[in-house]
Every structure is written in C-alpha cells, then in structure tokens.
Amino acid sequence: MVSLVDRHTGFVAELRRAGLPVSVAEGLDAVRAVRAVDLLDRESLRAAYAATVVKRPQHRATFDTLFDLWFPAAVGDGAGAARDPGRPARTVDDEGRPVPAALDPRVQRRREELADLLLSGDDAGLRRFARLAVAEYGRTPGQESWFSSGVLSALSPETLMARLLESVLTGRERGGMAERVARRTFRDRIARFSGLVAGEVRRRIAEDTGVERTARIAVRPPLERLDFAGATRAEMEALRREVYPLARRLASRLVQRQRHGRRGRLDFRRTVRASLASGGVPLTTHHRPRRPHRPELVVLCDASDSVSAFAHFTLLLTFALREQFSKVRAFAFIDATDEITKYFAPGADVTSAMTRLAAEADLVWITGRSNYGHAFKVFDDRYRDAVTPRTSLLILGDARSNYGELSLPIVRSMADRARHAYWLNPEPRAQWDTGDSAASRYGELVPMYECRNLTQLAAFIEELA
Amino acid sequence: MTDAMFASPADAGRRLAGVRYLADDEIATTVFLAQALGKPLLVEGPAGVGKTELAKAVAAATGAELIRLQCYEGLDEARALYEFNYKKQLLAIQAAPADRAWQETHDDIFSEEFLLERPLLAAIRRSDPTVLLIDEADKADVEVEGMLLEVLSDFQVTIPELGTVAAVRRPFVVITSNAARELSEALKRRCLYLHLGYPAPDRERDIVLAQVPGIEAELAERLVRTVGTLRDLEIKKAPSIAETVDWARTLLALGLDDLDEAAVGRTLGVVLKHVSDQERAAKELGLSG
After folding, report:
1. Which residues fall within 8 angstroms of residue A46, CB to CB, at 6 or more apart?
2. What is the reported pTM?
3. pLDDT value at position B266?
4. Looking at the structure, do residues A379 and A424 belong to the same domain, yes or no?
5. Integer Cα distance of B234 and A112 in angstroms
6. Cβ contact, residue pair A52, B192, below 8 Å
C-alpha cells in the first residue's frame, strides 16, 4: 500500500494528464480539505477532492472515473461479497461447457435479484450486486482480463424492462404518461447498473495491471477537448448542452465590446436639473441611452455527409445564436445553397427544426457531394444582399470541394463586403491542403480557424468578439 | 478565519436540514469545508436548483446575518464596495465656518461619517457572524471579478482616504453563477467549487414533502418522477425545484390526489412557462388536448 501522500500526488498528476487544470494551489487546498474530513468516509473524501480540484462540471465524469481507480471502494472480491470459492457462478453441462445464460438456473436467480434491486431503487444494494456480478461473470475461465460485456450479456438488464414496467403499472393503461415516466426511471437505474459494472471492471483491471495504465485506457478526453467528429451519441447530447452557453457568451462578448465607452451623449437638461439638488454643482452627469447595437450575423454552413457530425453541431450553434441575436441569417449548402433561417424561428423546437431542415431545404443541386464553388455561386446569386458592411460572416466547413470549381472571386468579394469574415474548419490543420482540400486557398481570402472541439470554438469566440 | 460554525459534514447537513434545506452528502461536505478552510464557495448550476437558497440556509442555520450583493451588468465599485456621500460632503463644505482652513475641512469630509458602505465593505467590517452572498456573479462585468479577487483573497479593502480595512471576522462567502459567462480561472482557483445539478429523485421528493405539508408521499414521488421526465425533454426552460414545489401545492389546492394525464394537462402551466415547451411535453407525454 502506497502512502497517502503518494496516492495524492499520483492522483493529482493523473488528473492533470487527463486534461484537468489542477494548479499547485488547488492541490494544496485538496490536502487541507482531505485533512478536514473523515478519511474513512469515502464519499466525504470524494466531495473534498471534487470541491477543491474540479472547477467545471464537464470535468466531473473524468474525475469520478479516476477517483474510483485511485481510491477504490474495495480490494479483490471485496467485503460482503462472500462467495463460495468452490462453486462456479455458471452451471456447466456434461462436457464442461457453460449452459446458455437463459437456461442456467443460477444466472436466472441473479437476474431475479437484479430485477428486485432495480425495482426498489436501492443504490447501495445495486453497488454490492455489481461487485458480486463482476466477480462472478466478469472473467470467463480462459480469459486473462476483466470485461463488463460478460456481466451484461449474462444478466442482460435491458431485457428486464418489460417485467419491471409490468410490476409498477398493474392496472394502469399502457402507453400513457405513467409508462413513460416509469420507463425513464428504470432506464436510468439500468444505466446506473451498467456504470457500476464498468467502474468495478476498471477497478479489477487496475488491480491486475496497475492504476496508471488503466487510467490511460479508461479515461475519455474531457468534453471540451473531444473531437466533434468522434463523439458518441451521449457525448453529442452533452456537447449540445454546452453550445447554448457558448452562444450566449458570443452574444455578450459582441455587446460588451460595443459598450466600450459605456455612456452615450450628455443629456444636458437632466444634468442641469439634477444639479439643482446640489446647489448648481453638476455632481452627477446624466447621459442619453446608447442606441442598442445589433450585430448582424450570417452563417453559411456545410451540411454534407463528410462533415455531418460537425454540421449537426454547427447547426445547433446556429440555432443557439439565433436565439441570442436579433438578426441572424443562416444558410446551409451541399452543392447548392438554401436559406434555413426560417427553421430556426425563436422559440422553435430544435429537434423538429433539424428534421424539417433535412426534409425540406433545397441543398442538393446534382450530386449531393459538397461543391463549394457552386454553393457560393448560388449564394451570391440569390442572397447577395445578406452580406453588408454591418455583417459578420461565418463560414463553417472543411473546404473539400471534390476537386470542383472554387469560385474564389465570389468569396473574395463576399469577404470584402462583410465587416468581418471567419471560416471554421473542422479538420485537423495537418490535413488541410491534402487531397481535394482547398483550405489555404480559401484561407488566404477568409481567415480560417481549426475548430474541432469546444476549446477551439471557445477560443474562436473570444477572438471574434 | 471564520469561527467554527459546523463541527463536521454531518453536522452541517443536520443544521441545514433544521432550516428546511435538505443537503445531500456532497453539499454538506462542501459547505463544511468552505467553513473549515475559510474559503469562498462558488456554486454553479442551472436556474432554480437552490443556489441562493443554500446561502440563505447557511445564514439561517448559523444565526448569521445575510448580506447580499446582487450582480448585474454595470455593477461598479461604488455599488459593490463603498462610496462617499457627495451630497453630504457638499453640505458640510457649505456649512463650514468661513474662517476654517481648507485642509481641515478636506480631512473632515473624507472621514468615516461620509462613507456609504456597500455590501462587500459591510460584510468585511461586521464583527458578528456574516454570510456574504454574491449572487449571479456571471452577470457582472469582468472588472468586478478583479475587485472580488482582491477582496476575497485577503478579506481587506483599501480606501485611499481612510487606509486599509481588514476583516474583523471572515464572512462565509457564497458566490453563485448560472455559468452564463465562464468565470475567470483566477477566481475559481480561490474558491471551493460546488456544482448543483437537479437533485436525485429521492432528495427532491424529500424536499417536496418538507415544503408542502399534507402531500402524500406516493403522490410526491410520482410528481418528482414526472418532473424528471420533463427535464429530460429538450425544452427551453427545465422546471426548477421551486416549480416542482409549486406544482405540488397546486395539486393539493385543486384537491387532485392522482397525477394522471388529465391532471398534468390541467396544471402543466405551473411547471412549463413556454408555449413551445408545453406543446413538446404534451406530445412526448401523450397528453390529450
């Protein structure tokens, strides 16, 4: 067992390696906090660390994963999981092969237990059960390592849903609100169980191969460094939630910048009037309110398949911006361009807007593969008046035009006309100008930024404003 | 250093519960630590999860006075820290006898008597237990953060005419933010951090039971689960805890003891305040009409 100080420094070092900015001062705070709580109470210890070293909610998942590895809840099979060592968890048939899970009475008994726990929502029980289940099914005899797939396929918690619903909805009408609410509750509990199993498996692996190595495999990059293109569904959801604050920040940055010299023209009449109270000395000057500045934004977004994850994300950004600015016009293109502003009316529903957009917008001219040249030409023909000297123009795309025409003069004239023009490219900079990418040729006309994750997007927003 | 207001995380939890703020273990531990380490506590989270309530509860639980600084765009030193009372100063100058030396008058008008203390200075100067709530720090301009840094790291304020005022007794500081703007790293480094999300169903049920006497536990449970489902939908304004409580009161007032489609349909306006949200919820939950 390593000493507590080593544990601490190792843990903090690993947090930093995983992308959490833990300063020296915060590390020291953590030590002080840890000394103030009861070390034997693991959740207090977790809270103490969390309060001192995690300063963004997006980092919390990474923190929890690493915390569970560094300060494991149990060692080996753990206390309370007293297992009869001579008895295998699976019944074997005459030839020594395990019986299929569905026919194995032992597995079925475990499934009963799991169903009861899910039904009651007993979290401590679920935690104990997950530990036990991993000990029993996490490693088949021939395997060296631990896997959660073994546990989940033997117990298949998802298939318990029908039975769980049955037992709470007795006598109620199916398909209605009650069922939806119950379904969500159980889905959360099943997900919780899967999470517990995954954590337990990581702990087992860490015991076998060392904490540092496991941490390196187990930890996904924090959300703000996650590649838009490589995001899983759940991560995309989380990213989506991050977009709104960014849009708000962008809006407030633009307004803030405008407010330099916050006061408007002197309001002479009011100033003199107010000075009467102080014997004619104008102590406070009054000013006319400034005309509110309305930055205009035109967004031109590549919606083709090659950037679909990014496009999805940028459309969300557009949607969020639409709510923050009074005047945003949005256009999407593949090989033709169409205005999509109307789908993003304030107060509209984002999901249905996306569906309608895909179904109705006129984005495809012939091939359905991006053709920047033609798209820009169409934009220039039909929406020339959208770009004015008051406009900030934002182009989102990978600049891969399938070796087609580029329409550089049109882009140049658009960039000249707009107040600012920016291009966000979701490809890594190293891949620019490879193959059919025209990144630097467009980049000469419109300043191009690599934008693959939230950090880069946020950095861009700081720059834009 | 703050005096020990709480003996342990469990004590903090108990005392907060005593003033009807149900804290989970993490909240209780963090509040205890903020007090034990004498550090400001930064609380972030969506609107309506009880961030401001937490500060009020800490004040109530410890018998401290709550001093509140509401942040907004354009908040400046004069509103947050201190200001000299110009009008009074002017009067004093005018009322001064003609033969009095200017230097004397000058020294006189920049004295304690003409100082208007604003929340930050007031919190530092108080000798009784104080909870300083800096509410919605993200609404204020970046410059205000600079001022907060100065005040919160040393708990002292320098007034050029009067000298440095150091805290007699450190206030318990709670800073809340809806994360509309990312607060600076420097400020975050100086604070303990607590992210308050929507509560777990069990805790929210207990909150409803505590706030709405007379409601059946089973109805509260079902209500909380329904609100949880609503929060999962992609809506503009997810219902807050306060709205859950309001909803419970509404059901009670209407004499509804079951939360079926009809009851939800009639009372949805209590929890969802946007038409588009209501339409979406009606669709997703299969409410008719």
Report:
1. A64, A67, A71, B26
2. 0.77
3. 86
4. yes
5. 34
6. yes
